């Protein structure tokens, strides 16, 4: 199956400065209502669908003063601010005289600290628990990383600077959690949150799957995209584990796609639970899989040449009782930089309208949360990329399983472009949680 679409972005209705209906400004950094240190990084994109000439420029206001302007439809800059609360705005101006904006309220602190937006102190939450925070430091070199302790056990480290946004499985009951930052000068600061996790199982996590056994790879030729193993020179591919650089933990996996047939793909898949389980979970009596309803796909990916990567795809597939539930997510890079999800019942991709702009030559963190409902519907709950979470809650019907195979798999797929240009990607810290 070809897994990309060139659907248009869904436009968000925002407040207007002047009449320019259906224009939108999407801000990926900073998040509204957060606390950070100065300077503040601003990243945003804009569209202006009612103006045929498009977006002319974008800018940043701080406390009603225009402090930065750039021509074009994207903005990426750092803005210095004084300590305290600030009302900021990211605005676009189109060639037809219209403009729209997105407001961002910020608090700037020049002291060391961790400011937590989730979870709230003494709150009752469900698992997985969203841990979201920002940090600042007096160290001139900045914040190196942030992490989460659960009941005095270091459970997660982001290795990604002064922003933390991750969902973690936590058992039912009362827990003492700590969100901590470490700076490049050897300093640290933290904020504690006591929480109660209500109901249900905390889930089980399969760790470091990029370094696990069980991976199988298949080529896919257009237009039908049936899988092949000995695929010839038209589509070539390979996977190598134990990569130390680039890597977050010294055990990344490297994936390559090449060949001569345009728009050919490679599918890398691993049977985690059920038949041929790579994790020692064969579910021979067919009792585990029917009990599972919630899944979280959490991984870091890296590529040095996004300009030739047509699509990067991240899937969870579940087969049991003659049903097929494929939770497909693809970052449609060359088809509009948008997230698409798989309409399982109708066998087609659907654009979410959510922007997907991964960073080139850098690690990107993706977390996907989905659910099989009690009626076996596919519920796409949320997509998080580099700390920015978008909630969907979209439902789709299941399909019919093509065979009696019984199991749960995770997939990673790379799609070729119109030249079938060779490119390499990496996965690291790939974890899968189920309950």
The secondary structure category is mainly beta
Report the top-level CATH class of the largest domain: Mainly Beta
Please report the distance between the alpha carbons of the first and last residues: 29 Å
In round numbers, the mean pLDDT is 87
Number of strands: 33
List keywords for this structure.
Jelly Rolls, Immunoglobulin-like, 435 residues, 33 strands, 3 domains, eight-stranded antiparallel beta sheet, single chain, 0% helix, mainly beta
Task: List the topology elements.
Elements: E1 23-29, E2 34-36, E3 40-48, E4 55-62, E5 65-71, E6 74-79, E7 84-94, E8 99-108, E9 113-118, E10 123-125, E11 129-136, E12 143-150, E13 153-157, E14 163-168, E15 173-183, E16 188-197, E17 204-206, E18 216-220, E19 227-228, E20 236-243, E21 252-258, E22 265-274, E23 294-303, E24 311-320, E25 323-332, E26 338-343, E27 348-355, E28 363-372, E29 378-385, E30 388-396, E31 399-400, E32 407-415, E33 423-434
Task: Give a description of the structure.
With 435 residues, the protein is mainly β. Helix content is 0%, strand content 57%. The chain contains no helices and 33 strands. The protein has strands spanning 23-29, 34-36, 40-48, 55-62, 65-71, 74-79, 84-94, 99-108, 113-118, 123-125, 129-136, 143-150, 153-157, 163-168, 173-183, 188-197, 204-206, 216-220, 227-228, 236-243, 252-258, 265-274, 294-303, 311-320, 323-332, 338-343, 348-355, 363-372, 378-385, 388-396, 399-400, 407-415, 423-434. Strand 28 (363-372) and strand 29 (378-385) form a beta hairpin. The two termini are 29 Å apart. Mean pLDDT is 87; it is low at 1-23.
């Amino acid at each position: 199956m070809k897994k990309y679409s060139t659907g248009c972005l869904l436009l968000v209705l925002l407040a207007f400065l002047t009449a320019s209906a259906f224009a939108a400004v999407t801000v990926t950094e900073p998040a509204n209502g957060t606390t950070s240190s100065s300077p503040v990084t601003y990243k945003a994109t804009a569209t202006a669908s009612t103006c045929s000439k498009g977006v002319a420029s974008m800018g940043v206001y701080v406390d009603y003063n225009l402090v930065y302007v750039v021509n074009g439809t994207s903005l990426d800059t750092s803005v210095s601010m004084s300590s305290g609360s600030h009302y900021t705005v990211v605005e676009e101006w189109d060639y037809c005289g219209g403009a729209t904006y997105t407001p961002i309220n910020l608090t700037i602190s020049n002291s060391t600290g961790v400011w937590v937006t989730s979870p709230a102190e003494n709150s009752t939450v469900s698992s997985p628990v969203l841990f979201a925070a920002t940090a600042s430091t007096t160290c001139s070199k900045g914040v190196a990383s942030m992490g989460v302790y659960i009941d005095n056990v270091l459970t997660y480290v982001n290795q990604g600077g002064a922003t933390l946004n991750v969902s973690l499985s936590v058992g039912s009951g009362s827990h003492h959690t700590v969100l901590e930052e470490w700076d490049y000068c050897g300093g640290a600061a933290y904020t504690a949150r006591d929480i109660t996790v209500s109901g249900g199982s905390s889930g089980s996590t399969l760790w470091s799957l990029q370094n696990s056994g069980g991976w199988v790879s298949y080529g896919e030729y257009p237009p039908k995209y049936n899988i092949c193993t000995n695929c010839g020179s038209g589509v070539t591919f390979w996977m190598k584990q134990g990569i130390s650089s680039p890597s977050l933990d010294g055990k990344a996996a490297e994936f390559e796609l090449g060949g001569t047939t345009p728009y050919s793909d490679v599918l890398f898949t691993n049977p985690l639970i059920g038949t041929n389980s790579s994790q020692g979970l064969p579910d021979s009596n067919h009792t585990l899989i029917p009990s599972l309803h919630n899944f979280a796909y959490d991984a870091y990916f890296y590529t040095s040449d996004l300009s030739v990567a047509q699509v990067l795809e991240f899937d969870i597939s579940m087969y049991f009782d003659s049903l097929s539930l494929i939770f497909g997510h693809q970052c449609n890079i060359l088809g509009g930089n948008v997230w698409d999800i798989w309409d399982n019942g109708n066998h087609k991709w659907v654009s979410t309208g959510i922007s997907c702009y991964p960073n080139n030559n850098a690690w990107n963190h993706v977390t996907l949360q989905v659910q099989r409902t009690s009626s076996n519907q596919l519920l796409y709950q949320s997509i998080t990329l580099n700390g920015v979470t978008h909630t969907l809650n979209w439902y789709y019907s299941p399909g019919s399983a093509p065979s009696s195979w019984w199991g749960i798999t995770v997939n990673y797929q790379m799609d070729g472009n119109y030249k079938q240009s060779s490119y390499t990607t990496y996965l690291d810290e790939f974890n899968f949680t189920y309950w």
